[in-house]
Every structure is written in C-alpha cells, then in structure tokens.
Design a protein that fits this description.
By secondary structure, the protein is of the alpha/beta class. The chain is 21% helix and 44% strand. It has one domain (27-116): Immunoglobulin-like. The N and C termini lie far apart (47 Å).
Amino acid sequence: MKRRVLVALLLGSAVGGVVRLEAAEQPGEIKISAKKFEYHPNKVTVKAGQPVVLVLTSEDRIHGFKMPDFGLRTDIVPGQETRVTFTPDKPGNFSFFCDVFCGDGHEDMEGTLVVEA
C-alpha cells in the first residue's frame, strides 16, 4: 500500500512538473493592428526572457513592421495574420515602426515595446 502511494505521488509530481514546464514555454500572443498612421495598441509590455508571438493585422493596406533592436522586420498584409515569434532578452523601451510608406503621417506610425525584467 505504501509503495502504491509513493508511486502515485511520484507520478503526480512528474506530470505536474511537465504541465508547468509546457505552460512556461508557450509564448504569449499579443495582437497589434495597423492602419493609416497608427498601431493599436501602440504600447506593449512584456517580460524579458519569455517568448512572445506578435499577431499583426492591417485594417486598410500593406504596412511594414520593424523593430531593429530585436532584428524584426515583416510586412503586414490586409486580410492576413502575420505572426512574429521572438524572445525579448533585455529590459528597456524599444521602438517599432512602419517601414512601408503609407502616405502623409507615415513618419508618425510607431509604437513602443516595454520589456520588464
């Protein structure tokens, strides 16, 4: 009887550890939409060392998404989700911006990624 209890406790502990490990490795999704001359939200906060998936959509035309501090660059096409996965490895405030000219006001199309320690 004691042996069965011990085996059950060990198995339960191992399974619980695996579930916690898998949950910790799943990247969090953050949705960001783009439209002429703005991102929404334009400020995103994440934790350093935790994987993130940016789910980018466009409401009106092709836009760009560039975040040089993390080497990220992609196009955002209307009617499609663009998914960018990365792990921010340093705390601080980092700019992202549109690098596909979308008209007057394009230069104001930017946002901030806040990475907390």
